[in-house]
Amino acid sequence: MEIDSEKIHERKQSEYNYLDERFEIHKEMYRGQQYSQIYFARLHLMRTLLYSLAPTWKPHLPVCKVLGLEEGKDCIIVGTLFKHMKLKPCVLDEYSKERSVTPLVKPHNFMHPDDNLILEDESGRVKLGGSALSPAIYVTGVVVALHGKETSAGEFFVEDVLEAGLPPQIERPIDLQEDKYVVLLSGLCIGSKSANPLQFQLLVDHITGHLGDEEEQGLAAQIVHVVIAGNSVEFPRKLINGQNLASKDQSTLYEPIKELDIMLNQIAAGVSVDIMPGLNDPANFALPQQPLNRCLFPGSAPYNTFRSCTNPHSFDVDNIRFLGTSGQNIDDLDKYSEAESKLDFVERTLRWRHLAPTAPNTLGCYPFTDRDPFLIETCPHVYFVGNQDKYDNRLVKGSEGQLVRLICIPKFCETGIAVAVNIKNLECHTLSFSTQVRI
Amino acid sequence: MNRGGGNSRKRPPPSNTPPPVKHRATANSTPSPAIGTLEDDFMVEEDVFLDEALLYGDEDEESLILRDIEERESRSSAWARPPLSPAYLSNSQIFQQLEIDSIISESHKELLPASSGQAPIIRMFGVTKEGNSVCCFVHGFEPYFYIACPPGMGPDDISNFHQTLEGRMRESNKNAKVPKFVRRIEMVQKRSIMYYQQQKSQTFLKITVALPTMVASCRGILDRGLQIDGLGMKSFQTYESNILFVLRFMVDCDIVGGNWIEVPTGKYKKNARTLSYCQLEFHCLYSDLISHAAEGEYSKMAPFRVLSFDIECAGRKGHFPEAKHDPVIQIANLVTLQGEDHPFVRNVMTLKSCAPIVGVDVMSFETEREVLLAWRVLFLPPIVFHFYMCNTFSLSDLIRDVDPDIIIGYNICKFDLPYLIERAATLGIDEFPLLGRVKNSRVRVRDSTFSSRQQGIRESKETTIEGRFQFDLIQAIHRDHKLSSYSLNSVSAHFLSEQKEDVHHSIITDLQNGNAETRRRLAVYCLKDAYLPQRLLDKLMFIYNYVEMARVTGVPISFLLARGQSIKVLSQLLRKAKQRNMVLPNAKQSGSEQGTYEGATVLEARTGFYEKPIATLDFASLYPSIMMAYNLCYCTLVTPEDVRKLNLLPEHVTKTPSGETFVKQSLQKGILPEILEELLTARKRAKADLKEAKDPLEKAVLDGRQLALKISANSVYGFTGATIGQLPCLEISSSVTSYGREMIEQTKKLVEDKFTTLGGYEHNAEVIYGDTDSVMVQFGVPDVETAMTLGREAAEHISGTFIKPIKLEFEKVYFPYLLINKKRYAGLLWTNPQKFDKMDTKGIETVRRDNCLLVKNLVTESLNKILIDRDVPGAAEFVKKTISDLLMNRIDLSLLVITKGLTKAGDDYEVKSAHGELAERMRKRDAATAPNVGDRVPYVIIKAAKGAKAYERSEDPIYVLQNNIPIDPNYYLENQISKPLLRIFEPVLKNASKELLHGSHTRSISITTPSNSGIMKFAKKQLSCVGCKVPISNGTLCASCKGREAELYCKNVSHVADLEEVFGRLWTQCQECQGSLHQDVLCTSRDCPIFYRRMKAQKDMAVARQQLDRWSF
C-alpha cells in the first residue's frame, strides 16, 4: 500500500474507567436460592429512597405498609408492582391437554385490556384500582410509591403515583474542548444470512482510518473507543444437542467466531474496544450476562485494548458515564407493556431507576441473594440499548439538572448503521455503510 | 380485623375494661362482668344449656337472657342477614326451601287440638327472597302405606283387623310413647302399577301409623303374616311401604326440591318459644301449604349464604393428622351470597398470632378452644357463649354470625367436618357441635357407605348439620366428571386451568411453630384452599344445576349427592302414579338372583385407518325413545298367563324382540312413557327458552334445567334394570336393549342396501362400526361436504322407517378416522364442511392415571401428527426420537413419574406393590416426609440388579434426582409405551413394532452413574478433560484437545444458557402460583407437572455452573 504522507493523523487519547464489577458473578453460586431475595433487596433499597422523597411529594400524608391500610383513609404505600396478565405465556401451557386447532401465533406483545396491577411488599398484596396508574405502562418488578386509599372491596384506589425519578449524576466535566467520539454498534450477526462481511469490513476500515479521504480519516482519528453491544455472531445452537459433533460441524460452529476474532483483532490494534455478550452470543442466558470467554478470541485477547465485558456494561470515558445493555431489557418491556417509541421504554427504566424491572419475572436473571445489581444508582450521561430495529436518540433532562443521552443502537447486519457519540457535547450521529455486491 | 394492631392477642384483664375497638367489627355489646374461672363457667354452661330435655321445656331464665342479648345485637353489621321487614307477620310467608327433614315431637296443640302424644313433624328450612332465614314446621302429615285388601274382607272386618294389627305392633314396639300405633285403616280404590289390568281398580287398605319408623315394623308384621279371624294366617304384599317419609310428604303436597313455598296469611302460627335460630319460624298444617311450580318469578333463586371453608391441622412428623392428637391451627372462611361474584366475608381464624392480610379479617387466638368456638360463632349468634367468653376474650365483639345456608368445601364431609367435631370432643368443648339451626341439637358424625351401580361402593362420613345443606365439591365432581385425579390441585388445574400451591403437611407444623409471618403464610394458603371450592362451584354452576335437578325430579337437594339415581326416578314415578290412582308394590329385595339380560350391541369394528370421511348416525335419546315408541311400562306389561287368558287382539299388543308382551297406547298409556315425554318436552322447552334468554342468571338456570332433564330421561331405563333397585322390571329393560340391538342392525342393513352403486350412488356405503346408539358409515365419497349430504339423507330415510319418536340424527363426520377396536377410536370431528371442530378420542390412553405423562404426551402428539398433520412418517419420527431420548436419559423426569394412591400400610398389602414397598422404604429413610395412608405416592422405576422384582425397583423421584440414580428405560419402553403406541400405529404403519421399538434409534443407551451406590464409595474423583474425559492433573483440556477450546466452550455455555432459561421460567411460574414475589416458594405439590422439573433445574444449574467455571482461566 502506498502512503500519502501529507498528514499523519494521530488518534486522540482518552481516559477509560471500567465499572462492571457489580455485574460480575464470581463467588455467587446456585445453592438453591430463589428469586424472592432479589425482589426483597430491590424493595428494600427503593423503599428507603422513596420514603425520603415522600415528605416533599405529599407532605400531609402518612406512609403505610400494605398490611397497615385502613379503609377510606388516604395514605402513601410503597411496594413492588405485579402485573396480572391474561395472555402472559406460561410454562404450564406446555402441559395443557388440548392442542388448539389454529397454530399458535406468537404475538409480539402480551397485553390485554383485562390486565391489572397489584402492589406487593414483603407482607402482603393489594389490588390496585383507579385510572392514575395505567397497567399498559407499568410492568412487574417496578417499585413505586402510591397515594390513595383502600376501598370497601379491599382494593387500593390510586390517586397519584411517585416514581423514583432520575438518579443523581456525576458532574460532567466542563473543560472538554475536543471532539472525541465513542462508536456504538450492535447486531453484527456474523454467520447469519443477513450479515454482509464487506459492510463490517468497511466499518472496521473506517474506524481504523483505512477508508476515505483525509477528512474522513481525520474524523476516524477522533474515535477513542468502540463498544459492540451484543449479538456479534449468529450461533447455530441447533448443532449443540448433547451429541458429539462431527468435525464438519465443529468448524461451522467455530467459523463465525473466528471471523469475529479477526475483525476485532484489526480494531483492537488501533483503538480500544469493548465487546458485550447478547442474546445470541455464546454466553450464558440470564442477566447479567458474563463476559464472552477469552478463549474464543485467541487473536484479539492478547491486546490490552480488547475487553470482554458484561451485559449490562458500564464505563467512563473522560469522566463521561456510559451505561448500556444489549437490548434484552427493552425488548422484554416491549412484550409486556406499551409505549410509542422504544426510547420511551428506555426513559422509563431510567425513571424507575432500574435497568431491567421485568427480571426475574419474564427476563432471565441470576438469583442474587443480597443485592440487585440492576438498580441505577448513578445517572449515566449516555444510556444505550443495542439490537433495536431502528436508530433513535433523545436527550433527557432531569429535575436536578441531569442530562442524559438515550440511544437505540440498530442492528448493524440489517441497517449498516453504527452510532458515534461525541463526548464533548453528547451529540450523536450515525455512521452508515452500504454495499452492493455484484455477482 | 385488627389490622394495625399488634400481632399477639392477649386476653384483656377480667375486669370491666371495654373491648378494644376494632374497625369493621361492631363493638356494641358490653361484656358482662367476669363470673369465675374458665372451668367454673364451663360447668355452668353444661348445666344450663346442654340438657337435651330443655328442648321442649318451659320458658326459663336462659331464654330470657337470650332474648335480651338478641335484642341488643346490632343488625347493622355487614355480616348479618337483612332484618325482617316489620310487616312480615301480616303477609303470606313465601320462601325457597333448601332442606326438608322430619322430627318426632309432641303434636301441636293449637293446630291439631284433636291429637295428642308424639307425632312426626316436617321441618322445612329455607330463605325468603329478601334473604331472611325461615324454618317452617309442618304438622298433621302422617305416614301411611297400602296393602291389597284380601278377598273376602269387607268393611266390617276392618276394625277386627285393626285390633289384631295394633296388638302385634304393641308387642314389637314396646318403648314407643304413643297412645295408638295404627291410627287408621281405610278402604280405598286403587290399582297396582304392575302389569296390564282390565279392571279399573281394586280395593286396597290404607294403613296410617303414628310414626314414620312404624311403617317398616308394620310392613314386617304384614310380610311375615297375620292370623286373622275368619281368614286364617295371611301374609300381605305391601305397597309404597318403603318410601321415605319426607319424600312421601313432598309427593303428596306436590313439593319438589328447592321450590318456593307459600303459607297464606292466617294459616300459620308463631310460637312464643322458638326452637330454631331462624329469623322466621312458624307452624302450619300440611294441607295449607301452597307449592309453587318453578316458573316465572318462582324459577329464581333466593340469596342463599354459601360458606366455603378449609382447615389446617398441625400433624406430627410422619403421621397424617389425627383428631385425637393434632390441633386445628387455622380455619379460613369465605361467605358468598348466591348469585354474587365476590365473597362478602373473608376471614381466617388462627391459633397464635398471625400478621394481617389485606382484605381479610385475621382473628388470632391463644388457645385452640377459642379458635374452634370462634368458628362455631359463624353458624350461630354468639348467645350461648356470652356467658362463657365474657371473661376471656369477648368473642361476641368480634364476630357476627353468618348463618350459612349452604356449607361447601373440598372433602369437608370426609375430613374437615368430622375432624372438627372429633377434635372438639377430644378437647372437651361440649358446646362446639351445636352448629345446626335447631336449638340444642348436636352434630353427630357417623360412618356411612354409599353404594350405587353407577359409582360403586364409597365409604364416607355423614355429618348432619340440621337446617344447613352441605355440598362437598369432591363428591359432586366425582359424580359428574371423570378425571384422572381428584386432588384439589388437579381439579382446579382441569377446570380453572390453574395450578394450586400445595404445602406438605409436614411443613405446616413448621410454619405454625414459626412466627406471626410464617403463620400468615399458612393463612394465605388456607384462604386459597377455601376460595377454590367457591370458584369451582361458580364455574361449574353446581348450585343452579343441582337445584334444577331437584326441581325436575322432585327430591330434596341433599338426596342428589347422598343417594343414587334411582330415588329420582322413584320420586317421579310416585307422583305420576298418584295422579293415575296407582300404587307401587314394595319390591322384595331378592338380591342378584334375578339374573342379567343381554346388553347393548356393539357392531363388529372393521379396524383400520380411514382416510375417507366417516359419517356418524346417532339415535337421539335412544332408550327413552324406544320406551315411548313401544309404550313400555310396568302398567302395560302383560303377564304370560294374561296373554293366554285375556284374549287381547294382536293390533292392541306389541311383542318385543325379547319375547315380552306390552299393550299399546290405545288400551293403556304407560306411566314411564308419559314421564319421559314430559321430560323431553320440558327439555325442548327449556332449550328454546335458553335461546331466548338474555339474563345470564336466567340462562344458567335454564341450562341447568335442560341438562337435568336429559340426565333424568336417561336414568329411567336404568331404574327398571337395577336388580337391587326400588322396582326392577327386567322385562322392560331387556325389551329396551333388544329393540336397541334390532335398530342398530336395521340401520346397518338399510344403509348398506340403499346406498349402492346399483341404487345410483357413486360408491357402495359400508358400515364400519356401530355402538350402543350410533352407527359409523363410510359412504366412500372423498370430501366432507358430500358425506354430510349423504349422512343427512340416510338419517332422514331411516328415521322414516321407525315408529315415532325414535329418530336417527346425523350430526358429525369423522375424517380421518382411526378405528382401533371396539370402543377405541380417534378421529377429527367435523360438524361443518369448512373446518374440523376438534380431535375426538375414545378409550385411548390419554388420561389413565396409572400411566406416566410420557405415554400421554406420546399418544397425543402421535395422534396430532397422524390425524391433523396427516404425517405418518413424521409421527413415527417423533416416536423414535422420544424413545431415543428415553434411552439416552434425556427425558424430563416428571414425564416418567407414575402415581398411585396408598390405600393401606405397606404390610397390609397382600401382594407386594411398587408404591407400597416404596412408602415403607421411604419411612425408613425419613419418617417425616414419607407418604402416609391416603396420600398418593409418586415413583419412577429404576435400574436395579438383574432379576429384581418390579416392586423392588420403584423409587422416589426426588431421591432419584438427588442421587443420580439411573431410571430403567426398558421398563418404560416395554411396560408403558409399547402397547398404546402399537395400538395406534399398527393400522397406519407396516411392521410398526419393528420400526418403532427396535430400530437403529434404540442402539445407543446412556445411563447415569449413581452417586450413592456401594462401588462409588471406593471411587476417587479426578479431574478429567472436558473434551474427551481423559484424566488430567490440572486445567480444563488435555493436550490433544487444546485448540478445540472455542467449540467445547460454546457447547458448555449453551448448555448453561438453556438451563438458565428453564430455571427462570420454572421458578417465576411458581412465584406466580403462590401469589407472592417477596417470599420463598414452599410448594411441594407432586401433582404439579413442573415440580420435578423445578427441582431438577435447580440441581442441574449448580452442576453446570461449576463446570463452566473451569473455563475461567
TrEMBL record, chain A:
<keyword id="KW-0539">Nucleus</keyword>
<protein>
    <recommendedName>
        <fullName>DNA polymerase delta small subunit</fullName>
        <ecNumber>2.7.7.7</ecNumber>
    </recommendedName>
</protein>
<dbReference type="InterPro" id="IPR041863">
    <property type="entry name" value="PolD2_C"/>
</dbReference>
<keyword id="KW-0808">Transferase</keyword>
<dbReference type="GO" id="GO:0006271">
    <property type="term" value="P:DNA strand elongation involved in DNA replication"/>
</dbReference>
<dbReference type="InterPro" id="IPR040663">
    <property type="entry name" value="DNA_pol_D_N"/>
</dbReference>
<comment type="similarity">
    <text>Belongs to the DNA polymerase delta/II small subunit family.</text>
</comment>
<comment type="subunit">
    <text>Heterodimer with subunits of 125 kDa and 50 kDa.</text>
</comment>
<feature type="domain" description="DNA polymerase alpha/delta/epsilon subunit B">
    <location>
        <begin position="182"/>
        <end position="391"/>
    </location>
</feature>
<keyword id="KW-0548">Nucleotidyltransferase</keyword>
<comment type="function">
    <text>The function of the small subunit is not yet clear.</text>
</comment>
<keyword id="KW-0239">DNA-directed DNA polymerase</keyword>
<dbReference type="GO" id="GO:0003887">
    <property type="term" value="F:DNA-directed DNA polymerase activity"/>
</dbReference>
<dbReference type="GO" id="GO:0003677">
    <property type="term" value="F:DNA binding"/>
</dbReference>
<dbReference type="Pfam" id="PF18018">
    <property type="entry name" value="DNA_pol_D_N"/>
</dbReference>
<dbReference type="InterPro" id="IPR007185">
    <property type="entry name" value="DNA_pol_a/d/e_bsu"/>
</dbReference>
<feature type="domain" description="DNA polymerase delta subunit OB-fold">
    <location>
        <begin position="34"/>
        <end position="161"/>
    </location>
</feature>
<dbReference type="InterPro" id="IPR024826">
    <property type="entry name" value="DNA_pol_delta/II_ssu"/>
</dbReference>
<keyword id="KW-0235">DNA replication</keyword>
<dbReference type="GO" id="GO:0043625">
    <property type="term" value="C:delta DNA polymerase complex"/>
</dbReference>
<dbReference type="GO" id="GO:1902969">
    <property type="term" value="P:mitotic DNA replication"/>
</dbReference>
<dbReference type="Pfam" id="PF04042">
    <property type="entry name" value="DNA_pol_E_B"/>
</dbReference>
TrEMBL record, chain B:
<dbReference type="GO" id="GO:0006297">
    <property type="term" value="P:nucleotide-excision repair, DNA gap filling"/>
</dbReference>
<dbReference type="Pfam" id="PF03104">
    <property type="entry name" value="DNA_pol_B_exo1"/>
</dbReference>
<keyword id="KW-0269">Exonuclease</keyword>
<dbReference type="InterPro" id="IPR056435">
    <property type="entry name" value="DPOD/Z_N"/>
</dbReference>
<keyword id="KW-0408">Iron</keyword>
<dbReference type="Pfam" id="PF14260">
    <property type="entry name" value="zf-C4pol"/>
</dbReference>
<dbReference type="GO" id="GO:0043625">
    <property type="term" value="C:delta DNA polymerase complex"/>
</dbReference>
<dbReference type="InterPro" id="IPR036397">
    <property type="entry name" value="RNaseH_sf"/>
</dbReference>
<feature type="domain" description="C4-type zinc-finger of DNA polymerase delta">
    <location>
        <begin position="1025"/>
        <end position="1094"/>
    </location>
</feature>
<keyword id="KW-0539">Nucleus</keyword>
<feature type="domain" description="DNA-directed DNA polymerase family B exonuclease">
    <location>
        <begin position="237"/>
        <end position="376"/>
    </location>
</feature>
<feature type="domain" description="DNA polymerase delta/zeta catalytic subunit N-terminal">
    <location>
        <begin position="140"/>
        <end position="215"/>
    </location>
</feature>
<comment type="subunit">
    <text>Heterodimer with subunits of 125 kDa and 50 kDa. The 125 kDa subunit contains the polymerase active site and most likely the active site for the 3'-5' exonuclease activity.</text>
</comment>
<dbReference type="GO" id="GO:0006287">
    <property type="term" value="P:base-excision repair, gap-filling"/>
</dbReference>
<feature type="domain" description="DNA-directed DNA polymerase family B multifunctional">
    <location>
        <begin position="555"/>
        <end position="988"/>
    </location>
</feature>
<dbReference type="GO" id="GO:0000166">
    <property type="term" value="F:nucleotide binding"/>
</dbReference>
<dbReference type="InterPro" id="IPR050240">
    <property type="entry name" value="DNA_pol_type-B"/>
</dbReference>
<dbReference type="GO" id="GO:0008270">
    <property type="term" value="F:zinc ion binding"/>
</dbReference>
<dbReference type="GO" id="GO:0051539">
    <property type="term" value="F:4 iron, 4 sulfur cluster binding"/>
</dbReference>
<dbReference type="InterPro" id="IPR023211">
    <property type="entry name" value="DNA_pol_palm_dom_sf"/>
</dbReference>
<protein>
    <recommendedName>
        <fullName>DNA polymerase</fullName>
        <ecNumber>2.7.7.7</ecNumber>
    </recommendedName>
</protein>
<dbReference type="GO" id="GO:0045004">
    <property type="term" value="P:DNA replication proofreading"/>
</dbReference>
